[in-house]
Amino acid sequence: MPTLYNRIANQSLDRLSALSDGVFAFAMTLLVLDLRLPEQTAIHSEHDLWRALAALAPNLVIYLMGFLTLGIFWNGQQTQLNYIERGSRDLSWLHLAFLFTITLMPFSTRLLAEFLHYRTAVLVYWVNILAPGALLYASWKYVSRHDMIRPDAPPEIRAAICRRVYYAQMLYALGAALCVFGSLWSVAFIFAVQLNYALAPRLPKRFQSEAATPSSP
Q1: Could you give the angle at the alpha carbon of 165 between the alpha carbons of 161 and 168, nearest 5°?
Q2: Which parts of the chain have pLDDT scores under 70?
Q3: Neighbours of 56 (CB within 10 A)
Q4: What whole-number distance in Å separates Cα of residue 62 and Cα of residue 38?
Q5: CB 79, CB 164: distance < 8 Å
Q6: Half-sphere exposure of 15 (CA within 13 A, CB side)
Q7: Which of 16, 43, 148, 151 is the least crowded, having the fewest Cβ atoms under 10 Å away?
Q8: Per-residue pLDDT at 6
Q9: Exposed/middle/buried for residue 172 (C-beta within 10 Å: 0-12, 13-18, 19+)
């Protein structure tokens, strides 16, 4: 049986939300630090500078992917927290584990940028997407099982959030599997999935109810 301390610990979600905002902001800032300026000694003309900047394009795309990944997961976590009535010790540790995977995102993004043509780098990046997705899924299942969702939350929200996480992770897994044909196929597909979730394009009417639910892959 839980001790009194464990029953009263981490009841407020405000501190968890504040910590999450800080971790995401720091991780997003770290991403841009890996974009290096061209070596000044190698630049002797406008043409040299343009060529050096063009060489940075792959790194810029990977940086954008990392930023989109963090943005998507930040939205997903905040969506969940908005519909959770109260916190608990176990829920806090689930989200702390989630934040741990978020702190690894600058590393996996940099690895992918440096070794873009290696399948291992793609798989490491994918695992760094799979892990926080699985933890968000586990978090929502936990609050659903323990009746911690706000009573005014629409009934369809419970299933919609789980479904959103599930479908997103299935698409990311498909993208990772494409590395058997080449790492660039995986990167392009994962990037397309991220753009889809970030831009949330308008869908036909029969899918509008699904699209209207908050995204949390």
Answers
A1: 135
A2: 1-11, 37-38, 44, 201-217
A3: 14
A4: 17
A5: no
A6: 11
A7: 151
A8: 57
A9: buried
Write down the residue that tokens 């940099």 correspond to.
110
User: What secondary structure letter does DSSP report for 205?
Assistant: G
Hey, what are 129's tokens?
Answer: 């997407």
For residue 31, give the nearest of 56, 64, 54, 7 by alpha carbon.
Answer: 64
- CA proximity to 98, closest of 116, 118, 74, 114: 74
Distance CA 18, CA 66 (A): 21
What is the predicted pLDDT for the residue at 190?
95
Where do the structural domains in the chain lie, given as residue ranges? 4-211
Residue 213 confidence (pLDDT): 47
State how far the Cα of 59 lies from the Cα of 112, in Å rounded to an integer.
Answer: 9
| Cβ within 8 Å of residue 72, ≥6 positions away | 168, 194, 197, 198, 215, 217
What is the chain's Cα-based Rg? 20
Please give the model's pTM, rounded to 2 decimal places: 0.82
Condensed to tens digits (0 to 9), the pLDDT of residues 83-140 reads: 988 878 889 999 999 999 999 999 999 999 999 999 999 999 999 999 999 999 999 9
Cα distances (angstroms) measured from residue 79 to each of 51, 162, 213 = 42, 12, 10
Cβ pair 75, 157 in contact under 8 A: no
The amino acid occupying position 119 is R
103-to-47, 164, 182 alpha-carbon distances in Å:
38, 23, 27
Instruction: Give the residue from 210, 25, 187 showing the smallest Cα distance to 103.
Output: 25
Cα angle: 176, vertex 179, 185; to 5 degrees: 95
